[in-house]
């Protein structure tokens, strides 16, 4: 029979190094299905979803042991999913496999807290805010964050000085944050 642990018991067990095997099995049992379902909805195959979950579980355990996880702030399964989603997005970006807008807008702008329970709403807010930006801001942010162009390259391409390109990029990013209400 599977032992049940509350979120607080999970954290205490991992931090104190007791019942590690039982706690890990419980985490796998209680969170894997949820995470697998959510990442499969985003186009991952079953094997990749399993690998992603295992990586997220390791990060979760490390964060708990290091005291980086606050059990009062977010549920364990939600936190593990947010880690998995963050890893999934980083993998998409690293592999240049942008299957949807989120790979373009999320990780690069670094204004979304993936441990927030409402981070999917933040994705949508970023997408909508980006579309409201003017062409110049979209071009600068896209070139810098998604095409990994340097500010020097952007300045030359757009006929700006380096300082002007840097200031414009900053203002555009601030405008994006303001429009998305994530600042």
Would you kindly provide a brief summary of this structure?
GO terms for molecular function: DNA binding; sigma factor activity. With 183 residues, the chain is mainly α.
* CATH architectural category of the largest domain: Orthogonal Bundle
- The total count of helices amounts to 9
- What is the structural class? mainly alpha
The domain count comes to 2
Number of strands: 0
H-E string: HHHHHHHHH
Q: Percent of residues in beta strands? A: under 5%
What gross morphology would you assign?
elongated
**CATH class identity of the largest domain:** Mainly Alpha
- Average pLDDT for all residues: 79
Compute the CA-based radius of gyration: 20 Å
Which residues form runs of ≥5 with pLDDT under 50?
Answer: 97-116
**Considering DSSP H and I runs of 4 or more, what fraction of the residues is helical?**
over 70%
Protein name: RNA polymerase sigma factor, sigma-70 family
GO molecular function, one term: sigma factor activity
GO biological process, one term: DNA-templated transcription initiation
Keywords: DNA-binding, Sigma factor, Transcription, Transcription regulation
């Amino acid at each position: 029979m599977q032992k049940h642990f509350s979120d607080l018991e999970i954290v205490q067990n991992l931090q104190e190094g007791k019942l590690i095997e039982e706690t890990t099995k419980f985490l796998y049992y209680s969170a894997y299905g949820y995470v697998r379902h959510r990442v499969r909805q985003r186009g991952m195959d079953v094997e990749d979803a399993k690998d992603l979950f295992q990586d997220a579980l390791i990060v979760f355990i490390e964060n708990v042991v290091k005291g980086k996880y606050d059990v009062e702030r977010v549920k364990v399964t939600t936190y593990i999913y947010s880690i998995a989603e963050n890893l999934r997005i980083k993998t998409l970006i690293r592999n240049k496999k942008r299957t949807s807008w989120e790979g373009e807008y999320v990780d690069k702008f670094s204004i979304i807290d993936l441990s927030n329970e409402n981070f999917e709403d933040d994705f949508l807010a970023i997408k909508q805010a980006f579309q409201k930006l003017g062409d110049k801001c979209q071009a600068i942010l896209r070139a810098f964050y998604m095409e990994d162009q340097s500010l020097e390259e952007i300045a030359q391409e757009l006929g700006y000085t380096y300082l002007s390109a840097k200031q414009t990029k900053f203002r555009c990013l601030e405008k994006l944050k303001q429009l998305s209400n994530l600042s």
